[in-house]
Design goal:
The chain is mainly α. The protein contains 5 helices and 4 strands, in the order H-E-H-H-E-H-E-E-H.
């Protein structure tokens, strides 16, 4: 396990605001790990509970839930997002719910 890369991923996911979502690829890019979308999924699985990383805010590149529709984890992800105000249509977030970090977030909150 590469703790440094995982920590960058966890820190990036922690920056996703309530009510917004990001794709695995977007998180990888913002964490300074372009092309490492799969690593994001792996890192989220290893996130320490005490960090409270909002894993449910990370979706597939097509804005769909990360887990198979109807699975327990997909339902958990769906409910978490709905509770934050993210609108889902056919298990897919709407474009307006995609996180677009502003310049201040890019410069001061994200670590590369």
């Amino acid at each position: 396990m590469n703790d440094t890369k995982y920590q960058r991923i966890w820190h990036t996911v922690l920056q996703i605001p309530i009510g917004k979502v990001a794709s695995y690829g977007q998180v990888a890019d913002l964490a300074g790990l372009p092309g490492r979308a799969r690593l994001v999924g792996k890192a989220l699985g290893y996130a320490p509970k005490e960090l409270a990383v909002p894993w449910f805010r990370v979706l597939r590149s097509d804005r769909r839930l990360a887990f198979a529709a109807g699975s327990i984890t997909a339902e958990e992800q769906r409910l978490c997002l709905l509770n934050e105000g993210v609108i889902l249509k056919n298990y897919r977030a709407l474009p307006q719910d995609i996180w677009q970090p502003d310049l201040a977030e890019l410069l001061f909150k994200l670590h590369y």
